Amino acid sequence: MHSSKEKKALTIAGSDSSAGAGIQADLKTFSALGIYATTAITTLTAQNTKTVSDIFVVPEGFFKNQLETTIEDIKPDVIKVGVLYDNSIIKIVKDVLLDFEKPKIIDPVLYSGTGVKLLDEKSYDSFKKNIIPLADILTPNLKEAESLSEIHIQSDSDLPKVADSILDLGAKSVIIKGGHFKRKNKYISDYYYTKNGSESFKITNKRLPFDETHGTGCNFSAAIASYIAMGYSPKDAFILANSYVYLALKNASKVGNGVLVANPLRQIYYNSQKYETIIELQKCVSYLERIDKFSLLIPETKTNFVYSIPNPTDPLEVAGVVGRVTNYRNRIRSPNTIDFGASIHVANALLVAKRFNPYLRSAINIRYSDNLIKICSDNFICSNYNRRSEPKSSKNREGSSIKWGIKSAFINNPNAEVVYHDGDYGKEPMILLFAKTPRRILTMILTILKRYTTS
Ligand code: PXL
What is the CATH number that goes with domain 8-263? Predict the structure, then answer.
């Protein structure tokens, strides 16, 4: 799929070697939101989650080439500006922004989250005079808003006059990020202002249970730029970027010994794994329903067919059939509604099996019979357990029998593909098949049925 309509952004910003902020954060966010981003790197920082130890400003000749060569060919729909560091960079960026007729999102970065200066003091006035007026949307945090407006902010009632003073510098609109308001506050608001105040509004979120995080601001302004490139109004882009960053914050990673790092990709990958898992299981359950003779393999307690995301930690990360696959006379009746957490027993069996063989992601339970055990033993690696040997302490805990049983079967043979037990008083004997994928489970079922229906 290649489309000349693909939306593109250019980010002019600093490199963060800890990869939580700057260019690295921008690339994650633009990519996550489906925008193709190019980069013009202003500075290289040596940093980690505790400090910035060094800053190298890219020589202006090279910086200019980098910017012009990129933009001459790959025309952006939006430009996002982050760390500029000093006047040698500011001059060049100013000329490019003046010529650029599409939206410009400017994050007036003055300090790193760890408190190190990212704009040279001597260049501050030039930044204020030359860059701020070119912003369609300016995204200062509280400290930056204080600095630009020269007003000490004590409460949110100061913000309208702070915003007015920033808008007087020439920016078309400003979003003041309230994340640094007093720690005891239960809620955090971000505020959007335009020149005549007619469109002002705020978005409030519950404060998350941690203080400083690294990269939040960069991810936020890159998200705003992404939504602007898609064609959203500044207001809608603000609303969308706010919830995007809230998730990135909620999923913040502890990668070093200092501050947490915003993680904009985790939730997206997690959602996509869940989606792929559901879709694949749905296909395989539909296929199973069309194997007529499968009804012969459904036990009294009915069948569940499960598939987990790649690294599940509990049954809520294992998809199964809501209400199980049942038989009615000789026909299969499945509600074919797939959901996470729809199975307890088969899902728990899979989670235990996975501790021995991490590749296993799918499982199904079928009826027990001597003939079926013989067929399984001829075709697959089998192991078994005896429910009557289960220690009392385990038996008394609801739902723990299956965990104990699967564990003992895998201790006996960690390569097992089939685990069975021959029941106990009031407990139906059962066979469980395990595989990497639900497709492989279907193949196993077909192999079993081929022998079962001719024997
Ligand atoms: O979060 C602001 C920021 C922007 N750009 C770079 C940074 C930081 C914060 O540390 O390092 C390169």
Answer: 3.40.1190.20
